[in-house]
Amino acid sequence: MKKLLASFFTAALLVSFVSTTSAQVRFGVKAGLNLANMSYSNFGELEPETSMLPTFMVGGQAEFDFSENLGLGVGLQLNGKGAKTTTEFLSETFETKSNPMYLQVPIMLQYRNMGFFAAVGPYVGFGLFGKAKTDGAEDEDLSFGNSEDDDLAPLDYGAGVEVGYEFGSLRATASYNLGLANAIPKDVREGTDFKATHGVIGIALAYLFGGE
Predict the structure, then answer these.
(1) What is the CATH number for 11?
(2) Closest by CA position to 127, among listed 85, 60, 181, 163
(3) pLDDT given for residue 137 in this prediction
(4) What is the pLDDT of residues 72-86, one digit of tens each?
(5) Is 180 exposed, middle or buried (0-12, 13-18, 19+ CB in 10 A)?
(6) What are 88's strand-pairing partners?
(7) Is 128 exposed, middle or buried (0-12, 13-18, 19+ CB in 10 A)?
(8) pTM, 2 dp
(9) Residue 163 pLDDT more than 90?
């Protein structure tokens, strides 16, 4: 899966650059609400209970229209992820809000027709910074890496789907990004089958200029 995703990502990126000379190009800015969550597996009785965490995304994008209906979109986004996690200790319940921020690069095959918009494709995200807040405690900075002292793995990747409608230069969309990378640092999960992945529902507005 990792090799297939990497090959698809590389091929799509090369196509976007090679095709810029013949394609109509549009640029835009995009911002919206993220409803982030995390899925845990192979934790047994230690598996945490999670719920959605409201956060945000903002960024820019370039779109290459190869025909009237088909094109390729490449973005550069600051993307919030994470989850609310509920745990019990000594008969007390604590909620932790973990909100990591990633520099995310999506590459999406796009379809446009009479205002309708749809896109699908892979993404890769690089952990930048973030905060974790537990009830009754001070905020803690999140760290990205593969050591036992880190909170999250430095790289996230997966696949996304997006649908929406265009009103002139404005586009309103709903999306879902399915994380495929294990968010647990390599040294932390060593010798176990622990796995955690990101999942993000997004609602966004984009303003586009250039092209048609």
Answers:
(1) 2.40.160
(2) 181
(3) 83
(4) 999 999 999 999 998
(5) middle
(6) 93
(7) middle
(8) 0.87
(9) yes
